[in-house]
Amino acid sequence: MIIYLKSRTTDEIIEVHIDNTRFRTLVSLVVEDISAPYYDVFTKVNDKLIPYRLGFFSFLKLFIFSGRYQLKLKNGQIIRTFTTRNRQLSYLHLSDNGMDKKMRKIQTKAYFCGKFVNLIQPFNRPQLAFEKLSERAQESGFAYFKYVQEHYPKEKLYFIIKRDAPDYAKLKAMQRVVIHGSFQHFYLLHRASLFVSSETPGHAYFWRENMGLTANVVRTKPYVFLQHGVLGFKKLDSIFYGDRLTAPSLLITSSLFEQNIVTSQLDYDAKRAPITGLARWDMIDLAQERMNNRDKILVFYTWRPWLDDISDESFRASQYFQHIKATLTILSNYDDKQVILMMHPKLHATLDQSLLSKVKLWTDNDGPMNELLSSVATVITDYSSISWEAYYREIPVVFDMFDHTRYTDEVGSYIDLHELPFGVKVTQDKHLHVALSEIAERHYQLTSKELADKTKYFDFQDQGASERIHRQIQSLDLSAIRRVKRRALISAVGRMLHRSNN
Question: Within 10 Å of residue 344's Cβ, how many Cβ atoms?
């Protein structure tokens, strides 16, 4: 039998000759030379590619025992078997996410234990907080967890983190810290009534582990989305749309301006998008910020999704690479402030080391973003939510949206990028060095209009966001939320069974 693996993001199609019987039992494919992350499986009928769809029982087998259908390649990468919503067989090719056979056995025990305890003790269930890939304690998830521990110590809110994470040290002395990958971690994924994080629920589990009973529990768990920053320059993924099974129960906002985006663009009612401010802003003392010595310029360009699967050669030829290279060349001669660069690993690997040697490359090992921003005089960015963080801290922003036409078409923005609410925009008539000179002339301060307009975008500029978020969480009717999600899940299974019978 011949099957065809078609990349979702490139035109690559790989022809694979396999044993028909082994394929139908879902044994992972031995294909060493694949490069893209996602491949969908097709067969060919009359020279036309037809999606290969699993029968319902094969789907269930893969769903429940997904760990059996993974293959570790010689290069250390993993091929994971999964299916799409319409049961098309697909393969995920990514780096090892750390889930091994030992953990799968622990996970199975924790699954049954968690289900049993939920059955006999359905009330007073704990809650779980976490941050990116369960590797950090820097953002709103940690800020909220810390606040609850200090002000509501009897509440059962736990925080997940990996033992080898740099931020684990700051959590050692705290209560209710859970090691990622432990029995307690897997147990609490099932036992918890609610997730609280600035990331999607998948970050509480193993990245891209999207099949299996535990993965489904994680994916459909009620959660409060604390957000990284203010919505505006980048549209959210469809999983956040208010009518989706994967949508958060609460989506935290910072102003009526932002709440209106959520209610009009994402189909939430105002009650599900409460105006509280971000929990991590509780760690910011604005009065102290205004007195800080600001001796750095931070450069941060967001990644472009259309660059995910291209070769290094194509990446170097891209507008994105060439523009950032030119920007760093200009800034390498800037001696008024220290230039700090934060960037995607692929950019780091391809930029000239001679150019990088003239700036300070900031990594997670150098410290959290919030500490860095306390000494930043100006931020140069494109569409990143870091611009809102800078504005909140009263740091001038230079917007360098060199590819805004393509970005608007492929990513999208809730704000007209021709009419920015704050900052200085680089244009053909106003080059980067002109924008920086303009900010330097006003001694790296916001304009009077920017200061006056802050209240439009930040309803609160205090250190009370975590308390406001806590009150919102306490008011949630989690039983009702679980009933709605349960009905939606049963309906989805029913549709799948209907398609199977047709």
Answer: 15
